[in-house]
Amino acid sequence: MSSASPFERLSPPADTVTFTFEGETIAAAAGDTLAAALLAAGAGPLRRTPATGAPRGPWCMMGACYDCLVEVDGASVQACMTPVRKGMAVRRLDRVAGRHRG
Amino acid sequence: MADADLVVIGAGPAGTAAARTAADAGARVIVLDEQPAAGGQIYRAVGQTTEALAAILGPDYRAGRDLVAALDHTNIRHLPGATVWRVDPDGTVCVSVAGRGRKLAGRRLLLATGALERPVPIPGWTLPGVMTAGAAQILLKTAAMVPRATVLAGSGPLLYLLAQQLVRAGRPPLALVETRLPSAWRAAWRHGPGAFRGWRTLARGAGMLAAIRRAGIPRYRGATGLAVEGAAQAEALRFTAGGREHRIPCRTVLLHQGVVPNIQITGALRLPHLWDAAQRCFRPVVDEWGGTALEMVFVAGDGAGIAGAGAAALAGRIAALQAVHGLGLIDAGARDAAAAPLRRALARERAARPLLDALYPPSPEVLRPDDATIVCRCEEVTAGEIRALAGLGCLGPNQLKAFSRAGMGPCQGRYCGLTVTELLAEATGRPPGEVGYYRLRTPLKPVTLGELADLAPPEVRA
């Protein structure tokens, strides 16, 4: 990905699952949430805010702040509450429309 | 007909302990929890952890295994991945599991929804790479991930614990930047004798500080003017300490200013809340059993006031005893006999709390941030906009919400509510308890129309 990861894994994952973010293939550890996998991959901002287009990433990692919203299959989901599934197509939530979803 | 004698919301220390106590007394219990596994945030993923990771996280984390294992009981149904979005005073709970909505009814409800990190509004706190200290712990617990080139900043023992864990992981932070003034010790000193009864807590803290010192992590105290620099992500933390300006280039900044009760459900139920001046937050009014103004609703754990995991488990057991007594499963004598040792242990657990509160107060800068700082992350409303509206005569958080959209985003005020209360209190010269908090409403988390439609009776759906 464009920027190196702000996080590192203490050991390489035993099982990996691949999915795509903005069309690029990412290898996640089996059992990762999307937020953990995207942070580990250095995927950069997960969304831009509807109000000013400011970049955002995970803040709370516990489903409370909604700053890690991403688009999966046309719906916005919380990356920190969504387990990675093989072949998932994930997109940055860049649209101004606020189609929020828990 | 009720689905359970007791519905517990939250599978952290309070919820799991309460569920087991009630189940042991013969109650049928349903435990609803949003995460994939029990343990709450403090014992997140404790049932799946490896020995190597448990060694990094420390013995207190490992102790959570017993709590999680206690849910394994024939009378307990644990529903993970369950997001509660409505609770009614009659005990009905609306919840979504795997995208499907459903209704559950309990004869008694125990709200054990724990704590949230206190909002930390400083310039740059919305940048990617800036996270709560708790978020970093969750990444460590669930994914064995550690932050690179990180600075820990703020106030509170969790920063020391996280620093110690990162040292054990072989990835010490670049620095520990504390907003606490050295004079906090003077204010805290009067709590000394009482706190001595909580010596275990204090000994743990001393151990953490020793680990930080041995690792040679630079520690800055009395830091002010904290700001995160960066264009698209965090690049440096700026602050003033010891009369000098500092700038630490980094990749991640982990902020913490203590935790506050999660009052989303108790607020939506319109239960009475009070302003806790020591912890600078609202908490629901509960009696010595965790009982509330609604006979069937109990609150236990950090959601009733911050006291930590040990106290939460004890309070959960005490509330469960009263709940099963109310259901006629145990008599008053058995309830009181079982509660007595729990109460003594709870008093010990709580003993160190006033000292901790006095030692690690939230920084005034995050309680009442500068005008340019974003307060509402969702709608990007600044402290200056809130002060300006207060100057125009806006009196309360709900009017402010309508004027500014602060608190109207998807987080529903979880990370701006207390700041708005503090700013309005400052601007109007009224105490925060009088200013009040946002009116909390259903749905407590965003839901789809489909999840709502799932609740319709079959004849309507057909």
Helix content class of chain B: 25-40%
Beta strands of chain B, count: 22
Strand count, sense and barrel status of the largest sheet of chain B are: 7 strands, mixed
C-alpha-based Rg of chain A, rounded:
13 Å
The overall strand count of chain A is 8
- The radius of gyration computed from the alpha-carbon positions of chain B, rounded to a whole number of angstroms, is 22 Å
How would you characterize the overall build of this protein?
The complex is a heterodimer of chains A (102) and B (462). Chain A is mostly beta strands. In chain A, 7% of the residues lie in helices and 30% in strands. In chain A, the strands form 2 sheets. Chain A has a 5-stranded mixed β-sheet, with helices on one face. In chain A, strand 2 and strand 3 form a beta hairpin. The longest helix of chain A is centred in the middle third of the chain and has 7 residues. Chain B is α/β, with parallel strands linked by helices and 462 residues long. In chain B, strand 14 and strand 15 form a beta hairpin. In chain B, helix 15 packs across helix 17. Classes of the chains: A mainly beta (102), B alpha/beta (462). At the A-B interface, strand 1, helix 1 and strand 5 of A face helix 2, strand 8, helix 5 and strand 9 of B.
Provide the fold topology:
The complex is a heterodimer of chains A (102) and B (462).
Chain A: E1 7-9, E2 16-21, E3 24-29, H1 34-40, E4 47-48, E5 55-56, E6 69-72, E7 75-78, E8 89-92
Parallel strand pairs in A: 2-8
Antiparallel strand pairs in A: 2-3, 4-5, 6-7, 6-8
Chain B: E1 4-9, H1 13-24, E2 29-32, H2 51-57, H3 59-62, H4 64-69, E3 76-79, E4 82-87, E5 92-97, E6 100-111, E7 115-117, E8 130-132, H5 133-143, E9 145-147, E10 150-154, H6 157-168, E11 175-178, H7 184-189, H8 192-196, H9 199-214, E12 219-220, E13 224-229, E14 236-241, E15 244-249, E16 252-256, E17 259-261, H10 264-268, E18 273-276, E19 281-284, E20 297-299, H11 309-326, H12 332-351, H13 353-359, H14 364-367, E21 374-376, E22 381-382, H15 383-391, H16 397-404, H17 417-428, H18 432-435, H19 449-453, H20 458-461
Parallel strand pairs in B: 1-2, 1-6, 2-3, 6-20, 8-16, 10-11, 10-16, 11-12
Antiparallel strand pairs in B: 4-5, 5-6, 7-17, 13-14, 14-15, 18-19, 21-22
Helix pairs in contact in B: 1-11, 6-9, 11-12, 15-17
